[in-house]
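Hi R.,

As promised on Friday, here is the backbone we talked about, encoded as structure tokens. Could you run it through your design pipeline when you get a chance and send me back a sequence?
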């Protein structure tokens, strides 16, 4: 089944309920951030008040995953579903951490003075991709072994939010200087999506509109991508077939959505809107 068919057939709803440890019901905009579906789309990990929580994609009571005075954010599940990588300010700036998806002890993976913001995993669940400004005055896409070790850059140009294709042969990333909260910008700083071929080293643009396109995710086949575009005036969800070039708009919100994340099997997409999480 194609990516768009899976998404249109998926249950789309709003997480309306979050129960704290004291069973207090929180209603209205909850400031839930950075949703990340599990590989099979059955669960969603998200950030709330600086800690990570996990809830069923059917809704219900959320289980707390991390408890720390530092701010934990940007969770991403490993493709095998066993671990969740995230960024935390426990030592000042954002570093990369890993925790078992079932809970347990967090392991610090990166040690650097710049912010390291998690964006994804390699398909074999052995390496974590993140955005960081290290060797240059601009951000690059990096990867590091999930068990810790030396990080290496995957790009040499300004880039962020990198994600490897399912076969590991290509890298999808964003370039541009427009923050995700600024809508309707048209100019040279607009964001676009690019593909890097690891074998040849060539980089080609995926989007070339005057609007901003960002937050790209792969379909399981590697032939389609899902991403955010403000071509409608606000950020909405779009799909592009990399073979035919056909672009399809999937949502029509009147307010911008942000922090898109897609399940490994493309059965579920999640994003922020108005302080709440949409699936």
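Update: got your reply. Pasting your designed sequence below so it's all in one thread:
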């Amino acid at each position: 089944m194609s990516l768009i068919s899976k998404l249109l057939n998926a249950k789309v709803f709003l997480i309306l309920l979050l129960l704290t440890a004291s069973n207090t019901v929180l209603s209205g905009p909850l400031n839930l951030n950075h949703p990340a579906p599990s590989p099979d789309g059955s669960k969603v990990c998200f950030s709330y008040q600086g800690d990570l929580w996990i809830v069923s994609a059917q809704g219900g009571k959320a289980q707390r995953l991390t408890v720390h005075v530092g701010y934990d954010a940007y969770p991403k599940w490993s493709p095998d579903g066993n671990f969740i990588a995230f960024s935390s300010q426990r030592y000042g700036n954002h570093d990369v951490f890993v925790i078992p998806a079932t809970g347990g002890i967090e392991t610090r993976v990166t040690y650097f003075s710049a912010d390291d913001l998690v964006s994804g995993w390699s398909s074999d669940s052995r390496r974590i991709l993140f955005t960081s400004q290290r060797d240059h005055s601009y951000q690059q896409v990096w990867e590091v072994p999930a068990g810790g070790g030396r990080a290496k850059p995957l790009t040499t140009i300004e880039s962020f939010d990198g994600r490897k294709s399912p076969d590991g042969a290509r890298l999808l990333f964003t370039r541009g200087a427009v923050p995700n909260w600024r809508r309707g910008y048209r100019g040279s700083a607009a964001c676009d999506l690019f593909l890097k071929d690891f074998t040849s080293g060539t980089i080609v643009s995926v989007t070339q509109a005057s609007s901003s396109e960002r937050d790209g995710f792969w379909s399981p086949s590697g032939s389609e991508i899902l991403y955010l575009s403000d071509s409608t005036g606000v950020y909405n969800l779009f799909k592009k077939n990399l073979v035919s070039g056909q672009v399809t708009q999937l949502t029509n919100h009147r307010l911008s959505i942000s922090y898109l994340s897609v399940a490994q099997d493309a059965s579920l997409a999640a994003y922020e809107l108005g302080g709440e999480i949409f699936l």
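One thing I noticed while checking it: The CA atoms of residues 114 and 133 lie 6 Å apart.

Thanks again,
M.
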